[in-house]
């Protein structure tokens, strides 16, 4: 593969945001690595196909640290402070060990009653609407995922509207100045939040991280505290919002699969893995940078901080790994998908995301025996950018009193 740009993602428009899979499949048919241009204007190496993506995810020569990025790349930093997604071992190992104890299966399972209760409250409010119509993102997906993460971190007073806007701008805007301004606004907000929590510690995750910093000789720097707050808040709600929304959308667009799940609710866990494979919320990974020349699936890539993107959305639609990959089948053996990544950067909150999605979708189907999409699929507006994928709104309708 040469250095000529094969695809300018910034020029593909809304149809690509709505359905990027044909574009990725076309690239995959030509080979596993391509020279592309991202919406921000930077040139990158895009990895497609299951095996190439899985290998690249575990490649230690691809750095997550912005210090390794080439100064020539016209990119705005994706996060505030240092965190798990912008660090390499040994710093990454230290940070992950510190936070991982709060995301053990036992800790996540202990959150089940609260997830169920909040889901019930949100559905009560939604189903009380006499018109039998709602935007599922605003009524359920967003307030559930943001609410649980905020409670976990101990941030009840978060300005959720402002924070959501900053997060979307920082993660999805193609304008570098917009992304930079949004990141700066979040950094300022989070700095004040962490300072307040330092002065008034509570029994929550952020207070635990702050206590660890204070009592254990500065294991987390001020910048790392801000970075961890950014990571847990932004990735903690953005990905789960779209996992729930796109999971419901996939069911509504495949009535046979929806009927099968209603007939056998025990299929929910397998259905959830198929939702993650078929339309996961992370389209491409956060940025990686080359620290030395390397070879990916036979393609030489220079060192010196070149940008590398890994297309998770394409890996999980690769027919070499998942036969008939464009078919949504809740009975499929979807294990091994890369929706949560692979290797040392595998998503720490995967269990919590699964818990929320399982609870929300199960309760929604139980309480709405007649549920349908309240808009033509082509009319849905989708998030822009290459990182987070999902509809901005998901209009649904149900039969009141059914």
Question: What would you note in describing this structure?
Answer:
The protein has helices at residues 14-18, 21-30, 50-57, 91-100, 105-110, 112-127, 136-153, 160-172, 176-199, 205-215, 222-253, 255-263, 268-279, 312-315, 350-367, and strands at residues 7-8, 33-37, 43-47, 62-63, 133-135, 288-290, 294-296, 299-301, 307-310, 371-373, 395-398. The protein has a single domain (7-398), classed as Orthogonal Bundle (Cytochrome p450), CATH 1.10.630.10. The chain is α+β, with helices and mostly antiparallel strands and 402 residues long. Keywords: Heme, Iron, Metal-binding, Monooxygenase, Oxidoreductase. This is Cytochrome P450. Belongs to the cytochrome P450 family. InterPro entries: Cyt_P450 (IPR001128), Cyt_P450_B (IPR002397), Cyt_P450_CS (IPR017972), Cyt_P450_sf (IPR036396).
């Amino acid at each position: 593969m040469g250095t000529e740009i094969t695809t300018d993602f910034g020029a593909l428009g809304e149809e690509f945001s709505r359905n990027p899979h044909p574009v990725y499949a076309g690239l995959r048919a030509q080979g596993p690595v391509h020279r592309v241009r991202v919406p921000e204007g930077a040139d990158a190496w895009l990895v497609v196909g299951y095996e190439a993506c899985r290998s690249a995810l575990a490649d230690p020569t691809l750095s997550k640290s912005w210090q390794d990025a080439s100064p020539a790349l016209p990119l705005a930093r994706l996060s505030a402070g240092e965190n798990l997604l912008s660090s390499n071992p040994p710093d990454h190992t230290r940070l992950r060990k510190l936070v991982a104890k709060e995301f053990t299966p036992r800790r996540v399972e202990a959150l089940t009653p609260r997830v169920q209760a909040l889901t019930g409250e949100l559905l009560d409010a939604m189903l009380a609407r006499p018109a039998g119509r709602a935007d599922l993102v605003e009524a359920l997906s967003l307030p559930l995922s943001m609410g649980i993460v905020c409670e976990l971190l101990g941030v009840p007073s978060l300005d959720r509207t402002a924070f959501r806007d900053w997060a979307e701008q920082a993660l999805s805007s193609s304008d570098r100045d917009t992304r930079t301004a949004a990141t700066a606004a979040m950094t300022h907000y989070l700095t004040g939040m962490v300072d307040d929590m330092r002065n008034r510690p509570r029994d929550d995750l952020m207070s635990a991280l702050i206590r660890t910093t204070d009592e254990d000789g500065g294991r987390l720097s001020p910048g790392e505290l801000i970075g961890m707050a950014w990571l847990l808040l932004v990735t903690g709600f953005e990905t789960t919002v779209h996992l729930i929304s796109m999971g419901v959308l996939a069911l509504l667009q495949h009535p046979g699969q929806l009927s099968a799940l209603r007939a056998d609710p025990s299929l929910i866990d397998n259905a959830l893995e198929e939702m993650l494979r078929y339309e996961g919320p992370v389209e491409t990974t956060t940025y990686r940078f080359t620290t030395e020349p390397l070879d990916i699936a036979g393609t030489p890539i220079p060192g010196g901080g070149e940008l590398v993107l890994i297309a998770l959305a394409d890996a999980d639609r690769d027919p070499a790994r998942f036969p008939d990959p464009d078919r949504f089948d809740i009975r499929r053996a979807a294990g091994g998908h890369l929706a949560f990544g692979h290797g040392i950067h595998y998503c720490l909150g995967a269990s919590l995301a699964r818990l929320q999605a399982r609870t929300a979708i199960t309760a929604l189907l139980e309480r709405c025996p007649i549920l349908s999409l309240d808009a033509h699929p082509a009319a849905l507006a989708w998030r822009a950018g290459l990182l987070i994928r999902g509809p901005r709104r998901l209009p649904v309708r149900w039969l009141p009193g059914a």
